[in-house]
Amino acid sequence: xxxxxxxxxxxxxxxxxxxxxxxxxxxxxxxxxxxxxxxxxxxxxxxxxxxxxxxxxxxxxxxxxxxxxxxxxxxxxxxxxxxxxxxxxxxxxxxxxxxxxxxxxxxxxxxxxxxxxxxxxxxxxxxxxxxxxxxxxxxxxxxxxxxxxxxxxxxxxxxxxxxxxxxxxxxxxxxxxxxxxxxxxxxxxxxxxxxxxxxxxxxxxxxxxxxxxxxxxxxxxxxxxxxxxxxxxxxxxxxxxxxxxxxxxxxxxxxxxxxxxxxxxxxxxxxxxxxxxxxxxxxxxxxxxxxxxxxxxxxxxxxxxxxxxxxxxxxxxxxxxxxxxxxxxxxxxxxxxxxxxxxxxxxxxxxxxxxxxxxxxxxxxxxxxxxxxxxxxxxxxxxxxxxxxxxxxxxxxxxxxxxxxxxxxxxxxxxxxxxxxxxxxxxxxxxxxxxxxxxxxxxxxxxxxxxxxxxxxxxxxxxxxxxxxxxxxxxxxxxxxxxxxxxxxxxxxxxxxxxxxxxxxxxxxxxxxxxxxxxxxxxxxxxxxxxxxxxxxxxxxxxxxxxxxxxxxxxxxxxxxxxxxxxxxxxxxxxxxxxxxxxxxxxxxxxxxxxxxxxxxxxxxxxxxxxxxxxxxxxxxxxxxxxxxxxxxxxx
Amino acid sequence: xxxxxxxxxxxxxxxxxxxxxxxxxxxxxxxxxxxxxxxxxxxxxxxxxxxxxxxxxxxxxxxxxxxxxxxxxxxxxxxxxxxxxxxxxxxxxxxxxxxxxxxxxxxxxxxxxxxxxxxxxxxxxxxxxxxxxxxxxxxxxxxxxxxxxxxxxxxxxxxxxxxxxxxxxxxxxxxxxxxxxxxxxxxxxxxxxxxxxxxxxxxxxxxxxxxxxxxxxxxxxxxxxxxxxxxxxxxxxxxxxxxxxxxxxxxxxxxxxxxxxxxxxxxxxxxxxxxxxxxxxxxxxxxxxxxxxxxxxxxxxxxxxxxxxxxxx
Lengths: 636, 313
Fold this sequence. Notes:
heterodimer, A: mainly alpha, two-stranded antiparallel ribbon, two-stranded antiparallel sheet, B: 12 helices, globular
């Protein structure tokens, strides 16, 4: 039963991939079923952008479903929700009118909500589900408001009509619609400060669902933002782009900073999703600014960078979540402080996780590097805007992106090093076992995807350029060099992932050979790690994740505001003998304290005030009804 | 084609073979400046030969990451030496990448080295790794913004074209923005290559060291590779500094004499930079680890000022 369902989901993914590729290369169709859905009927349209996002969905869903066959075993809980989740995600990019979109969107949210409540016995899980439900519906409210306003102004609920009528709307109206829609979509994408649900909800779900939520579902927020800003509304005033750019830069830096001090492996990955969404938004923001200024080729570059990173993030984040799932499966904990040494017991998982770590850290020659490089190129050419004040904003965006890259590398040294290297830090880690074959197949598939997307930008970029060109209404073809070399913006920069990979490969083969020719000694002796002469090494001598992250905690203490609690019990006879040390160094979220806490307190204050009129007496309620009726009559 | 390959090989040889000499000269100079006789400038070669002849001791705690890292590290430096304009403006492999690729190649090396530091499970390695990635991460924004300041003036980030442009129009370089970017880049070089006042390359005292703590478990040919790669990194950063900010000589040379002449010009520029570095390292004290971010923030401010200078001037 479970195998059948996951097999079916994988088949849906294969179908979505085929349809997506068809759509990306010009295939288009429209499907209408008038009676199925109220207010306009079911309406699905395939266009290049929808096709691309179907492909992104497939890149996540196919391996996650294969993985689930091994990881979820025969468990029946959540099977239906999983299938609904997959199908509704596929419907979102295809939806072509407001009602179809809203239904697919809400189905996706509800199905994922049920999946987050997977372990509904635990309080943590319930809280995650509650926060997720509140945030996603607040987002939905913004979305519906924006869409209904657009519908009312254009007199239609079909997206095609919005596209045609939007240029005729006033600047103020378009900006109102943009803000509402962007808020709704950014909430789903997990952009700071609307991110609070993400690090709670993603880790609570089973790992294959976490992979889909982080790798794919939040990308549909990106889809919505692209669709709304470029397609429905056309490009707007510069502040749209600046806002998206700044929000993106802030999200990427703060997301990765929170990830650095997080030691729950799945939460850490969830924070990295916030970071990567930020990087995608930087590309979109640059695209919006360039499009508004009429710089078509540069707008295209920004959007291509964003799309490339979307695809890449789907691949490596799904890979990392599946790897984390395998580790959690094997050790029974999500705390990396209790792991260690897993590379010897889980070599396949470790190798795949290493590929994912290098990819998300944007290290060449893997896929993350290519899309971050393209984003850099889009940002670096801002002098064409000829707006000095914007150049400075761009410089800060560039700095944010660079800082993000470095910090992500640091974070994944921690995540991989503490989890997989050195000695096991707990019994469970010492007894860990390799994941079953279906899980390994899924991870290897995604690792290969990461490598392929890293080596093949000369094929991927032109394909993405057609998608972006169709979205921007940009008909002039843009050249991107030949199969070996990617030439961006007429030689502003060139890059060849293949050549770099080949050069690295040659060097890696030549170095051992060269050492042999040079007559280097080949003797090797296995011995214990040097511990200042101490005999015997234990895991307690190892550096911990907390210690590893400590320099960052001190440098960025204005963000973390760490509190320190040190509790030492001395021996009653002498203060030189310590019996027990308790050390806590937790961080606090400024968003919880400064943004959500006041809002929630305000809301509960209002609710308390409203409680005064709720006495529970039926007579009093009848009196209220009478009073309201009278007031209405008087007013009418 | 054959000429390009010959240049490529020459460039790797110049960087690979010259890097230990650069470090040797630097050490000799520093010794003389504090009144010691010091070792001969050729000492690093003798050290490498000695290390290659020794057996390696590998901790039983380690995995394949520890054994692969020295090779990955040296390979990234060799590939990087193909991308940097060394003695010709147009490096043989100019097409695969630019400064951004170069910086991320260095990060690739740092990534593996930091993992190897954790692999042996000693507290020293972990401490070194943690500090090294912190410094590398905080240095990254300065590099890219300084490069942005250069790119805005040269209208490209292709290293070869930046060098060509500046050597053709030397007046472009006579600008406050250029000077500020140079200062920012110089500070970052100190941080990235583990020099004073960020890290002390001459000590093994655990409380002060960053890089040396991370590579503490390495021995024999692995240590030789790691040391060689560090020397190459210093050499590449100084070459980049020399050619990006003082491009005269590297750009205009052609013909068969270009390579020896280019190497001579480069050597001259590097000697000047090495003198500057030696004087700096003997006059400043090492900063406390938690003051290093302030230094890097300062260099970042210089880079941003440089961008402002380009925009406003």
